[in-house]
Amino acid sequence: MSLAVCSLMLIQRETSETIRRMLSSSSYETCDISIISLPTQPILPIYAASYPGSGAQMTHYLYEALTGLESGDEWLHRGDTYDHVAIKTHYPSRKHEIEGSRLMQRVILLIRSPMHSLPSYHSYIYERENDIPDHTTRAPEDVWLKWRDGHFDEELTSWKNHLIYWMTEHETKNRLVVSYERLVNRKTGPVESTRVANFLGRTEGIEVVPPSQIPCVWDKVVNYKRIDVDEEGNEIEGDRKLSVLRNLYNERGQILDKNIQDSNKMGLVKRRVKYVSNEDPAHPSQSLREGDYVYNFTKTQLEEIKATLNGLRGRFLSEYTLVVILSGYVEEVENELKKLQ
Fold it and tell me: The whole model's pTM is what?
């Protein structure tokens, strides 16, 4: 094992121990993630990239909680309004690109095992097709099996190509790889959140919460339900939004003459939180959706997933963090294959 890898493992162990000490400290109970505001200066947003069904909404809230700034969506926001900490995108697995992204240069790549992201994405499709609110219902097993067998090859290829695109489009210094599974885990979640905070904090104009507060912020984002409320503390219903006048900037960060009135945006948002235990079905690790939890794959499909993961692991062998994540996915697939023997 190389000296660089050994050093990285040592740093990770030391960071994990620091986070564990933080978890037992008084600061764990006292952080405030209630206010989201506009930045005081133009900031260049980061790509928040993920294959659909990988937990993008949860990390959307995490970025906001760590910075106090709003995180955007590829369908609603542009990259050249310079007022979002990050903008979510599923490109290229879904073909819509962020408009005005010519100066965006950094990415947080969130990945989740295809064994879980594919079923999660299908449940989203099922909700949309049946006019059901997002993240509330899992697709019935028979519907899942029909979709799985009709789209498995296409979606597994899309999952693979999505990862390859973001791993090759940006240099290592401009890219952070984050595992959904580690992010929702109580032991590793605060450590992953610290990595995210450090990466976000490298953007000029962004200040992140102090390191001592990160375990608390993680706990409130991952283990709490979020309810948007306005300045007076009233819950903001789905069709009621506050408006804010946003500036457009040129490539030098100078305000242009024209502004845009964004009626779908909220100038000041507070989030009321309600604790959710790890065993609660509403917890992210359990998924917010109700219904059958386990979605099966055939032996052939599991072998295809394993081959895809091994191929990616070999291609990006120098990317230590990614290799560790993919190795965990391979182990899970192998365990599923043993059950079928």
Answer: 0.78
Name which of 303, 38, 3 is nearest 156 in CA terms: 303
Nearest C-alpha neighbor of 110 from the set 171, 59, 170, 168: 59
Q: For residue 301, count other CB atoms closer than 10 A to its CB.
A: 19
How are beta strands 107-111 and 46-50 bridged, if at all?
A: parallel
Residue linked to tokens 């930045």:
39
pLDDT tens readout for residues 58-100: 898 899 999 989 899 998 899 999 999 999 999 999 888 999 9
Position 140 scores a pLDDT of 86
Type of residue found at 235:
E
Q: Where are the domains of the chain?
A: 14-295, 297-341
Task: Characterize the bridge pairing of strands 107-111 and 86-89.
Answer: unpaired
* DSSP SS3 for 1: coil
Region of poorest pLDDT, from 175-184, 211-220, 244-253, 318-327? 244-253
Query: What class, spelled out in words, does domain 14-295 have in CATH?
Result: alpha beta
Q: For residues 98 and 79, is the Cβ–Cβ distance under 8 A? A: yes
